[in-house]
Amino acid sequence: AGTELQARWATRVFKGLCRIPPSQKLMAEATKKEQLIERGVMKDSSEDKLEFIQYLDDLAACIGAKPSVPLLFLKDPRLAWEVFFGPCTPYQYRLVGPGKWDGARNAILTQWDRTLKPLKTRIVPDSTKPASMSHYLKVW
């Protein structure tokens, strides 16, 4: 009974939090905002937005935590390759500077393994191996 009460309570809470206004109201608000921007009453804040990775790089540079990719290519080409061409993850900001972490290199080099492993739900048999005689008998 306690679990059922908790489930009902959670359902009510989430319904209250997830009320989405009607699309007509959203469109009216967007149109009104556009008109205010066109008339010069309101500033278009979308121009002030930064690119996410550039923003992270700027912050990291301010505190001395942004790694130098050219220097990394000289010292550790494999790591530099992953930092430059791989996904931007917080690990790369733990290679140097305050908050430096000795495990950052390994975390960067294994991040794809940790991402893909949970997605592998079943193992597919190797199709390059010849099927056994019992397999052919079952098929026949």
UniProtKB/TrEMBL annotation:
<protein>
    <submittedName>
        <fullName>Flavin containing monooxygenase 4</fullName>
    </submittedName>
</protein>
<comment type="similarity">
    <text>Belongs to the FMO family.</text>
</comment>
<keyword id="KW-0285">Flavoprotein</keyword>
<keyword id="KW-0560">Oxidoreductase</keyword>
<dbReference type="GO" id="GO:0050661">
    <property type="term" value="F:NADP binding"/>
</dbReference>
<dbReference type="InterPro" id="IPR036188">
    <property type="entry name" value="FAD/NAD-bd_sf"/>
</dbReference>
<dbReference type="GO" id="GO:0004499">
    <property type="term" value="F:N,N-dimethylaniline monooxygenase activity"/>
</dbReference>
<keyword id="KW-0503">Monooxygenase</keyword>
<dbReference type="Pfam" id="PF00743">
    <property type="entry name" value="FMO-like"/>
</dbReference>
<dbReference type="InterPro" id="IPR050346">
    <property type="entry name" value="FMO-like"/>
</dbReference>
<dbReference type="GO" id="GO:0050660">
    <property type="term" value="F:flavin adenine dinucleotide binding"/>
</dbReference>
<dbReference type="InterPro" id="IPR002256">
    <property type="entry name" value="Flavin_mOase_4"/>
</dbReference>
<keyword id="KW-0274">FAD</keyword>
<dbReference type="InterPro" id="IPR020946">
    <property type="entry name" value="Flavin_mOase-like"/>
</dbReference>
